[in-house]
């Protein structure tokens, strides 16, 4: 089954308002040629969502948030609900990012609740999974990723899976000095798709997009995107540089994926 490529630009806790506006305006103006074959989403810090929404209105870019509350509303100081996000024009949200799992302490159970809330509210989701260096060296990579997937998807209806993109984060290769290769990416994506096929069926699994969430830069994007089963990427630091991000988006124009 053919799958459109997906590129997410995760700005994390970076930029100021002026820079966010400038970056969004430049990307909206320049990303045109690949819009028919690649979905591009900007995952923006909460305070800048409304401004960026205006900057990219009527462009080929979509707006994403980096997190959401697992609850619809209530006495939850500092939380942001799915309804608040949709009111601002957000159509995508990140769930289960490694930085939130490992630095904030989000559990598999909380990730599952957030995924369910996002889908229930009409949002599309990038669900992040991945193993750290200790887990990988102990030979538990597949077990960890499978557990994360099964936990997150346990209560999700089959018909909602077309609004879910899986992002594989090779946490073991981020900031460790160990480089993940295109072969590593292809192997991990193959295992994730096999896990999805065992949970559902091969036909459904073949339609779910799986993207690479490692350290993507213009120099490695084309090689990684050419790997079988890699449907695009979740981009961190390079998404804050117009030229670099557009280069990565263009690299994803190699076509739709299969396999």
Task: Write a structural description.
The chain is an alpha/beta fold. The protein has a single domain, classed as Aldolase class I (TIM Barrel), CATH 3.20.20.70. Helix content is 42%, strand content 15%. Strands 7-6-5-4-3-2-1-8 form an eight-stranded parallel beta sheet. α7 (141-153) crosses α8, α8 (182-199) crosses α10 (218-225) and α10 (218-225) packs parallel to α11 (242-251).
SSE inventory with pairings:
Layout: E1 5-10, H1 17-30, E2 38-44, H2 49-56, E3 61-65, H3 82-87, E4 92-95, H4 98-104, H5 108-120, E5 124-129, H6 133-137, H7 141-153, E6 164-168, H8 182-199, H9 202-207, E7 210-212, H10 218-225, E8 232-235, H11 242-251
Parallel strand pairs: 1-2, 1-8, 2-3, 3-4, 4-5, 5-6, 6-7
Helix pairs in contact: 1-2, 5-7, 7-8, 8-10, 10-11
Concise summary:
The chain has helices at residues 17-30, 49-56, 82-87, 98-104, 108-120, 133-137, 141-153, 182-199, 202-207, 218-225, 242-251; strands at 5-10, 38-44, 61-65, 92-95, 124-129, 164-168, 210-212, 232-235. With 259 residues, it is of the alpha/beta class.
Mean pLDDT: 94
N-to-C order of helices and strands:
EHEHEHEHHEHHEHHEHEH
Low-confidence spans:
none
**CATH superfamily, called what?**
Aldolase class I
Widest sheet, order of strands? 7-6-5-4-3-2-1-8
Oligomeric composition of the shown chains: single chain
Beta content comes to: 15-25%
Number of structurally distinct domains: 1
- The SS-based structural class is alpha/beta
Overall geometric form: globular
Report the radius of gyration as a whole number of Å: 17 Å
* Helix coverage percent: 40-55%
| Number of separate strands | 8
Number of helical elements:
11
């Amino acid at each position: 089954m053919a799958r459109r490529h997906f590129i997410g630009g995760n700005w994390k806790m970076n930029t100021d308002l002026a820079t966010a506006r400038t970056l969004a305006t430049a990307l909206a103006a320049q990303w045109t040629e690949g819009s028919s074959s690649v979905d591009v989403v900007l995952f923006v810090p909460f305070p800048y969502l409304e401004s960026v929404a205006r900057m990219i209105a009527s462009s080929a870019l979509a707006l994403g948030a980096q997190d959401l509350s697992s609850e619809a509303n209530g006495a939850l100081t500092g939380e942001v609900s799915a309804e608040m996000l949709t009111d601002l024009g957000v159509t995508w949200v990140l769930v289960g990012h490694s930085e939130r799992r490992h630095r904030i302490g989000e559990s598999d159970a909380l990730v599952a609740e957030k995924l369910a809330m996002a889908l229930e509210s009409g949002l599309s989701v990038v669900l992040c999974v991945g193993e750290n260096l200790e887990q990988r060296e102990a030979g538990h990579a597949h077990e960890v990723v499978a557990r994360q997937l099964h936990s997150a998807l346990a209560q999700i209806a089959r018909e909602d899976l077309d609004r879910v993109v899986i992002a594989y984060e090779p946490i073991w290769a981020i900031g460790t000095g160990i480089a993940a290769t295109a072969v590593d990416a292809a192997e991990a994506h193959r295992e994730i798709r096999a896990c999805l096929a065992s949970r559902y069926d091969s036909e459904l699994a073949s339609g779910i997009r799986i993207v690479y969430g490692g350290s993507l830069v213009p120099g490695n994007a084309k090689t990684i995107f050419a790997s079988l089963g890699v449907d695009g990427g979740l981009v961190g630091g390079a998404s804050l540089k117009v030229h670099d991000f557009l280069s990565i988006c263009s690299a994803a124009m190699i076509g739709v994926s299969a396999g």
